[in-house]
Every structure is written in C-alpha cells, then in structure tokens.
Amino acid sequence: MRIAFYAPMKPPGHLVPSGDRRMARLFLAALAAAGHDARVASRLRSWDDGRTPGRAAAIARRGRARAAALAAGLQGGGWRPDLWFTYHCYHKAPDHLGPAVADALAIPYVIAEASHAPKQAAGRFAAGFRTAEAAIRRADAVLAMTVEDRAGLAAIVAPDRLHAFSPFVDTGPFHSADRAAAHRRWFGDADGPWLLTVAMMRPGDKQRGYARLADALHRLDACAPDRPWRLAVAGDGPARETIAAALPHPRCRLLGRIAADDLPDLYAAADLFVWPGANEAYGLVFLEAQAAGLGVVATAERAAGELVADGETGLLVPPNDADALATALARLLDDPALRRRMGRTARDRSAGFDLAAASRRLGGLLHPLIGGSPS
Description:
Strand content: 15-25%
Number of strands: 12
CATH class of the largest domain: Alpha Beta
Order of helices and strands: EHEHEHEHEHEHHEHEHEHEHEHEHHH
Number of helices: 15
Structural class: alpha/beta
Radius of gyration: 22 Å
Distance between the termini: 11 Å
Strand order of the largest sheet: 2-1-3-4-5-6
Shape: globular
Number of domains: 2
CATH architecture of the largest domain: 3-Layer(aba) Sandwich
C-alpha cells in the first residue's frame, strides 16, 4: 500500500529531538515493516504557540495552498497514495493537509494520536481547535494512544472508527544489549547500584519532573546517608544548569545528550529506572527501560500509569509525593531480588509494545479501509 505520511506537529526529519519526532519515526518504521511504501508527504509545520498574533491564520493560509498543490501533484504524478496517514493532530498542531488531499484523491484518511479538548474551543487556540476537530471528524480511523485521549475523542468519533493503539518501541536493540559490557563502558568500577533517568532538560513539564526527582533523592539520602546508590542522567537542554544544581552531588553523573543508538547500551548498564515525569503524554522512556529489563519507579499519572504495571514491572507513587517516591526507591535499592524480578517481568511484557506488534496491528486496521485484508 502506498501511504502519504504527515506529522503537522514536528516532521520526522526535524533537527530537534523529542518524543513527538521519535513517535513519528516509529510509525514510519512500523508502516515499512508491514510492507507499505510510506513517504513523508509534507514537512509543513502547523504548530501554533498561541502567543504570536496572526500566526494561526498564516499557518492556515499556507496549509490551504500546500494542500491544493499536493492534491494536484499526487493526482498527476507517478506516485499516487492509497491512503493518507497523519500522526498527531490537536488544537496546537491541526492538520490542514490530510482531509483536503484525501477528499481530492478519494482515499481513506487516518489519524494516529489525536486529542480533543473542548475547553480549547474558545480562546487563543480556537482556530486550531476547529481545524483539528474537523479533521478528526473526517477521519476514517482514529488511533488513540492513551486512555485520556480515547475518553475525549469518544464524544466526536464513532466507536467503529476509534481504535486503542498503545505507544511502541523497537525492542530489539534493548533486548540484545550486553549488560556486563554496558556496565563497564558507562560506569567502570564505580559503586552502584545505578539509577538511571533519561529526559530532556527543558523548562516546563520536564523541569518539573526533575524537581520531583531531586526532592525525592535528597530525602532518600537524608534518611540513609550510607545507602549505596548512584544516579546517571542522560539529557541536555536549556534548563541544564538549574536542574543540575538541584540534584544531589556527588552521587549524580550527568551524561549530557546521548545518541539514540547508544541508549540501549546505557539502559542495560543501569539497575533501576526512575522518572517522576510531570504530564508525560506517552512516555517512551518507560517502554525503553522495561524492554532493557529494568524495573521502573514513576508517578502514577498519564503515561506511566498505563505502561508500568504497579507491583509487577515497577512501583508507581502519587504525583508530587516526594516521600512516597523516596520510599519506593529505597524499597527497590534494598531488595536486589525484587528489583531483578521486576526487570525480568518488564522485559517479558515489552513484547506487547514492540515495533513488530505495532506493525501487525496497523496492517489489521489499514487494509480494510482500502477494501483489502491484512497480508
């Protein structure tokens, strides 16, 4: 199947790394693994900061012009898509292209990761909200990646068009990493056990997540100064200096930005993953850590609450409860057998969030839309 792929929030080739870019690339990989010829149809960004006067209107004008050009080009060119696939459509990054092109070419239109928040119907994102809602209503299938999104979308998407679709990663590199060699590479002879955090260092939710972590670690240290543990942090960004100053030293090692190809090795080197992220949409780091055989300590909200099985693959604590977070860390630091058992369970369960599983699921959803059957 020929698939026109579009990510209005951030195209797959964008230079700035983020979970959004990563998920777009993963969907492209899953489509390719299913045997589809998926091509990026446009790199036009529709993201609106909600603060720049006239920005939404300018984006809409560019979107209309680009949609008309695409429809004409795809109709008359040698490569004509059988289906349009948009990744991530919501009030800040609506899809101005997909519905128009799909209508012009009379092909199915699919959205993965859409969200519908009626509170945005008025105010600075009103125009984007209307465009996103129209696109979502037009879609022949909507793949909702969180329980929260499914609840909001149910008001405007018929049950037969709304499909639960979990986030996923390519678990292969995480499964195959050599733990002993990885530990020597990253930590040498340094005493452990090693906690690991992987998160960008930017203002907003990420910085709030680091603040939660720092608070809990200081409490952990104060309760038992002699308890052995170290923290490795993979991440960088504009808030690095503030975040670094809050973390307890000398127990922490800041590794900076780590290349994606090196991350499986880094996860394998650690003993436990911790990230009390604030407002994490779907938390690919939780899937990566579990695929690498790490138990997870996180806050029971949004992504972590859906991806981490409390008591089985990790421990979940209430948001903004530093004492509970410190207690959960202490429990797993003091019980290596429990920590390892959770890691093994996490690795086994990661098969359900694998690229191959997502590819098969996509085939089952997309082929019927063009009158075919899964290969």
